[in-house]
Structures are given as C-alpha cells and as structure tokens.
Amino acid sequence: MSASAIYSAKVGAGEGFSSPAPLAGLAGWTVFKQQQTEIYEITHNLNLSNPESDMQVVATSMTPGVSVVVEAVNANSFRVSAWTSQLAPAETDFMFIAHC
Q: What pTM was estimated for this model as a whole?
C-alpha cells in the first residue's frame, strides 16, 4: 500500500447478527456476527496483499468487565471476539481503529 490511512468505527453489540450490516462512515465495510454472540467479522474492500503487515487493528470494549481481542487480519476482513474476565463469551459495543 502506498498511502497510509486510518479507519475507525463504533460497532453496536447487536449489529450484523442475522446478516451483514454496513458500518456507518466506512463505505463498503460491514459487520457480520453469523449468529454468534461474541464473534464479529468486519469486512472491508482493501484487498491487502500482506494483511498482517499491512493493517494493524486495535479494538476497545465499551462494556466494563468485557475485553475484545483481534483474532485475525485477512486480505478483506478482520475478526474480533468479546470475552468477560471469567472467559465467557460476551456481547458488547466496541470501537476499533485500523491503520494501513
């Protein structure tokens, strides 16, 4: 990628539960939970050639006691999961920043 870019959004806890939902302010980006409470698949249209080097993602839970983890970064998506401190799956609003 030649130019650096920063992308950010707030993802609501229930967004994309039954089908992909667009992310406000990011054209072509969606969130899809595939009916999983704690797994959020964020898709984008960047076609990264070396995803783990080309994109860094940081996510922050908006619910006390819930942590979010970036599990994977792929050419056109990344996956975030949410967990309580007791390692139980959790649903939460979260915010992310992605730098390419």
A: 0.90
Residue 28, classed as helix, strand or coil, is: coil
One-letter-per-residue 3-state SS of 29-77: CEEECCCCCCEEEEECCCCCCCHHHHCEEEEEECCCCEEEEEEEEECCE
Residue-wise pLDDT tens digits, 8-17: 999 999 999 9
For 23-32, b where at least 16 C-beta lie within 10 A, e where not — what string? beebeebbbb
